[in-house]
Amino acid sequence: MSRAPAIVSAGLCSCAGASVESAWNAVACGTDTLERVRLFESPKHSERFAGFAKIAALPRGMSRCAAMMFSAIDEAARGFDLSAIKGDRISVYVGTSIGGIFETENMLERNASTGIEKLSELACYECSTLSELAAKRTGALGECAAFSTACSSSSIAIAEACNAIEQGRCDAAVVCGVDALSRITLNGFGSLLLLSRGKCAPFDKNRDGINLGEAAGALFLCAESKLGKAKPLAYITGWARTCDAHHATSPDPDGKDAARAIREALSMASVPAESVSYYNAHGTATTGNDSAEAAALRAVFGQNIPPVSSIKRIFGHTLGASGIVNAIISLESERRSILPPNAGFKTFDESLGIEPVTCPKGAKIENSISVSLGFGGNNGAIVISRGHAKCKAPPRNARTFIYGCGIVGRGGTVDDSHLMPDEPPLKKRKLAHLQKMGAHAARAAIKMAQPDAEKERTAVCWGTGLGMTAQTRMFVENIFAKREAEPMPTAFTNSVHNAVPSAIAIREGFRGLNSAVSAKEISFECALAQAVREINSGAADAAVVCAGDEYCQLAADFLKTSKYSENDGSKLSDFAAAYFIGIDGAAKSKPIAEILDVEICRLPESDAVEFKAISNMLASNGLAASDVSKWLSLKPCNAYQRRRLKSLADSLGIERFEHAAEKYGDNYCASAACMFEYAEYSGKICLQYSVSSTSMRAATLFKIL
Amino acid sequence: MKTFILLLAAASVQALYADSFLIEMEKIKSVSILTEPVRGKCALAADSEGRARWQIFSPYESITISNERGLFQFEKNAGEWKTIKNPFADKIKKVIGDIKNIVSGKFSNEYEVERSGNSATLLPKDPAARKFISKITVKFAGGSDIPESIEIEEAGGDKTVLKTLRAQKDPAGLSDAFDEKNFLKFPPK
Fold first, then answer.
1. Cβ separation of A358 and B32 shorter than 8 Å?
2. Does the beta-carbon distance from A20 to B60 stay under 8 Å?
3. What fold, for B2-168?
4. Do A325 and A379 share a domain, yes or no?
């Protein structure tokens, strides 16, 4: 048993107001916060109801997501002074489904109507922009990444922060979940016929779908040893993430993998099912979600289902923020000893067998569980406890090996016809270009590895800088061109960042953690670090780690606006690479490399500082610079950085420095090609050093076998 | 806005209590989105000078004080009380002023009052007020001038019932209730 990560502070900005208190008051008093859709013109959905965040200030140029997130972070910062912890020991994990898409939509609409190409709003587009902003706001200099797994995004982020703290990767973590209302989500859920005609009624017999909402939540988590005099509000004693591997949008109706997430989280927390005081449901009020969640509840709790409620009628479905909103309301319910009611519920549904809490009720709540279910069958469960602070999450310090690798794209664009040759055409045509690239690379890695790990203990961790840009642009432009008349449900389904890992999971049957992480030029390394942590936590024995980005017009436009474009002329390319990694015995084939370490932090551009950081990393692995046979850097490609990194390698005394971007084209994820550069270094130590355009540094040590 | 509505209710009570008073109440709020009403505890204190204090004990905690220096609101957050800036402070201040008018017998200027047996029904005359409140009904126990309950029917269909648990005229130390600088000094607990 170890000490669980402590929740030391929280902040929330939602349609109920810009504080945790106002959110709690709305939940406890049953305040009707949903309004008719506004913010943008919607010919088809103007009569729908949604929750609009009460944003105190929206400075020019700032995205709605950023404004909401800053509000939540600032509130949390008033509750805990992060400056007491060293900046490089504070990590940032943000969960968001669509990031700054609202501003990108505005840009596309304006550009289409005026014919003038103005791209300034694209600065908000990347999901990782939000994690970068959160890091700046809080002074965090540790790992910084955005997780985008649709509606489970912030639950995935919370769990990642807990893993990082438990494994000593950071002392504190800033975790945020945020999503703003947008045309793409309104029309997307509309195209899937999932929007309620009125106001949602979770678990009700007559439920007819969701109301969308927008919100940002922030939780500051801290290792207990670093609490100082701060008094924790509660502890996160259990967390688990699973995947249905069932369907791109619909949950498995049996809810068996959602049930597994709940069981695993409770097991980590050492909380027996009968000791759960409160279950804060995902409860979106769609027929499919509530039914699958009820099945999961029955599977875990049998006839003794704990008090259940969904808070979606108050906040709407806040998508990527919903996990953290649930966690914060669960925290408040424990602190105030009041069970939150399930607003909107009127009529018992025999087929569900769930009779939720119908009014605020006083109760001693020692352990609550919050659950999120997202597109791709993505499940996350978080146990929050005030009754105890222990959890069973000691790192097992397992050695992690690479068993197989696959790659798609070596500069330029990739022709779809060469991808997934074994896939039936009817299935293949439903997949978008980047999904095909990722799934193709993953299949090659799996084929080479010959996995021997249990599928439910095999994770899929995907890294991407820009995500599904082509599908996103197609869906949004179609909204404007057809005035919402002919939506494209498949393009919407394929527009989420986790469309690639969920496609891999569905094809391969992997039901462990399923994640998509975005961190600019170090997206691959963040996915690798996540997979290694998941394996080290004991939650998985193996993982497919892959990364990729696609060439398309939106991506090309984006490059015109970003620091990324400061290159020396290399061409934007399609690219994806994948690895099958795992503990000893996770695959039948002979391992090709061992992953010794992955370290990610923000460093100033200083040879001295970076020299020290790399030396320390090597030393912590019992190595010296002289042990490194090859230093590889695939990004960035501008000439200045290339010279600087060569100079740094020289000062470390590493003779074999190579910059390999030319081989793979200009792509956020080109660093994922690393293993294809080490083939001739059998028995040697190789170091990959990646530098992002926002001063993030990722150092990865491999021993080639 | 809830405070606004409830202070209007306070006005109706005050009409029956020309003196200083403290009433502790159970608040039962029926809202359309919950199948069962939300129950909480609250208290209203006022004096003949027009000062008032509205305190909510559950399901959340807040205190609103109106005195000669202005309107002050406090909420308990994370175990600590903090000051809240209310954008409706001016409107609430006006309502507090109305209390004084009502105490002075100007009750009918704001409401149409219908008295029947042991109850009085107040109908807001102002169309703006009617957007929020359709009717306030004050009921008395037989022979008592202490209101037994106050029902506030909102235009949207929600209803709040305030049931008197305990009432005191001229309670000791009442002036402390209106001191915003020392707002926790005053009982009730």
1. no
2. no
3. outer membrane lipoprotein receptor (LolB), chain A (2.50.20)
4. yes
